[in-house]
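Fold this sequence, please.
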Amino acid sequence: MGLLALLLAACTALVQSTPAGTEVTVTPVAGGTLVHIRSPQGIGRAVVTFPGGLPDGELAFRLDLRGLERFEIVYGGTVISASVLPDGGSSLVAVRHSAGEEAAVTPDSPYWLATRLVSATPQPYYLVQAPPDLLARRPATLELAWVDFYR
């Protein structure tokens, strides 16, 4: 096995993000993995690759944003997006497969992104749970995009 393959196998994840100043970290946590997004500009993209495959367990995304106009996850031809209304309580979730049209998703769907505003902290943030379909398919690469409506 080459040195590069050994290094890749030792990594939890490889992350490429834009724009400059955006910080995306991937951390093992009890019961799964946390992807933490810090985006001073309030808008950005990232590609997260798990060289050994998506780790077992749950997958959650923490977004340090003031408002979540849109959060999008792309994997294997599936695009799932979530928006939280400015009141912080109501979520809208949609899914699109390959070149198909976007369709609304309900909480009982395997594409549902459970999203909540965690406001009992000095810096409120959004916590998004990966949908059951993503956990079942366990893709090695995720494309993420986000927009803060207060940017």
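Confidence is low (pLDDT under 50) at residues 1-10. Helices lie at 3-10, 132-137.
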